[in-house]
Write a structure and sequence with these properties.
Layout (H helix, E strand, L loop, with lengths): L2 E7 L7 H12 L3 E7 L5 H10 L4 E4 L13 E2 L1 H6 L4 E5 L2 E5 L2 H11 L8 E5 L3 H12 L4 E6 L2 H13 L3 E6 L3 H4 L5 E4 L22 E4 L8 H8 L3 E3 L1 H17 L5 H11 L1
Parallel strand pairs: 1-2, 1-3, 4-6, 7-8, 7-10, 8-9, 10-11, 11-12
Antiparallel strand pairs: 3-5, 5-6
């Protein structure tokens, strides 16, 4: 019997998850299918009951449900509890187990490049849901300090308090001035949506140089203006698609308990761009 998996969120049409997972199933000859399922805000609880009834074996959770989904889980892993959000759920005969693959998904490309983050200073642009997972990830890597640059200070302060709880030094910078201080940081991470569809750069890159590492979690286009400009300045680049792929592979492995086919999923992902 075919097992069905899904990604839930709103909007959901742009999701690359169905292409990634279905490519993996095809490659491995698995009798599984993966669909995108739109759940508008406010309808989460009733729609999750529907997914349970039709026996969906597992699902990914994206905006705007990552935090609210936590209330509907029977079990959460350590990363979920730390970040306060879930993005991967296993349906074990109506018993829902929640996991968060954002933290390790973010760290995978760093580990792959053998980048040691211990003692480094990080400039983090943005203070949304993914930024929280990034702070949690950096706390695991024992960085020295994280400066949060955001349009609104209020939201940034909440993230700074979270960083302090994890034992990290943390402070605030106005996003407009962040480009001027970027040269003082080894690591610059863009967790805003600026650069999506190739429009705009979140900060000025004139102070980014060959000693900088620039990680942009925006994955469409592959070369965002931030990445393109930082690359021209000689910086080490980490692409948003790498995090997306690492997260998808981790979800696959949680559901199926076998290694995800990296090459098949990577070729599918990059083919979509």
């Amino acid at each position: 019997m075919t097992k069905t998996y899904a990604v839930i969120g709103d909007p959901i049409d742009h999701s690359l998850s169905p292409a990634l997972h279905n490519a993996a199933y095809l490659f491995l000859g698995m009798d599984c299918t993966y669909i995108a399922y739109r759940i508008p805000k406010g309808e989460l609880e009733s729609d999750i009951e529907s997914l349970k009834k039709i026996g969906v074996a597992g699902f990914n959770v994206t905006i705007p449900h990552k935090v609210d989904m936590m209330q509907l889980l029977n079990y959460t892993d350590e990363e979920c509890r730390l970040v306060g959000a879930t993005n991967t759920v296993v349906n074990d005969v109506g018993y829902l187990n929640g996991y968060n693959t954002d933290v390790d998904g973010f760290l995978d490309p760093l580990r792959g490049r053998k980048i040691d983050c211990k003692g480094l200073d990080v400039l983090l642009l943005g203070a949304g849901g993914t930024a929280r997972a990034i702070v949690a990830a950096f706390s695991k890597e024992k960085i020295h300090k994280i400066t949060v640059a955001n349009r609104t200070e209020e939201r940034a302060q909440s993230l700074i308090r979270f960083a302090h709880q994890l034992g990290l030094e943390s402070d605030y910078s106005d996003l407009k001035n962040a480009g001027d201080i970027a040269g003082s940081y080894k690591f610059i991470v863009n967790a805003t949506s600026v650069g999506l569809k190739g429009i705009g750069c979140p900060i000025s890159t004139k102070r980014i140089g060959k000693d900088s590492i620039v990680y942009d979690i925006v994955y469409m286009p592959v070369e965002t203006p931030l990445i393109e400009q930082s690359k021209n300045q000689g910086a080490t680049i980490i692409y948003g698609w790498e995090m997306l792929l690492a997260q998808a592979m981790k979800s696959f492995e949680i559901w199926h308990k076998i290694p995800a086919p990296y090459e098949a999923m990577k070729l599918t992902l990059l083919g979509r761009f």
